[in-house]
Amino acid sequence: MKAIWNDRIIAESDDTVVVEGNHYFPADSIVREFFEESATTSVCPWKGEASYYSLQVDGARNDDAAWTYPDPKPAAAEIRGRVAFWKGVVVA
Question: Residue 84's domain is classified under what CATH number?
Fold first, then answer.
């Protein structure tokens, strides 16, 4: 699987976990230079608290376009250390 934004591959892995239709990529499969930690968080009742990343790719910015659950609830343990995408990021 590849995650693509602004015509650049921002993550690539054969080992994604699909939860609620979202592919969660291993953290070591993302291209770190494109990611910037965000102060944004959100809470899912069964997964826990999510932290976000903004993307900065070739001069274009996409705020809070990626998220991760650093300490998920037990029901979502399989996505610990993984990153998922939205806001125009194409996963194929």
Answer: 2.170.150.40
- Paired tokens of 44: 């899912």
Give the other-Cβ count within 10 Å of 16's Cβ.
Answer: 20
Sequential pLDDT tens for the chain (92 residues): 999 999 999 999 999 999 999 999 999 999 999 999 999 999 999 999 999 999 999 999 999 999 999 999 999 999 999 999 999 999 99
DSSP 32-73: GGGEEEEEEEEEETTTEEEEEEEEEETTEEEEEEEEEBSS--
* Cα 49 to Cα 66: distance, rounded to the nearest angstrom: 14
Q: Evaluate if pTM is beyond 0.90.
A: yes
Provide the domain count of the chain.
Answer: 1
Its domain, for residue 25, covers 2-91
CA 8 to each of CA 30, 58, 79: distance values in angstroms, whole numbers, following the listed order = 12, 9, 24
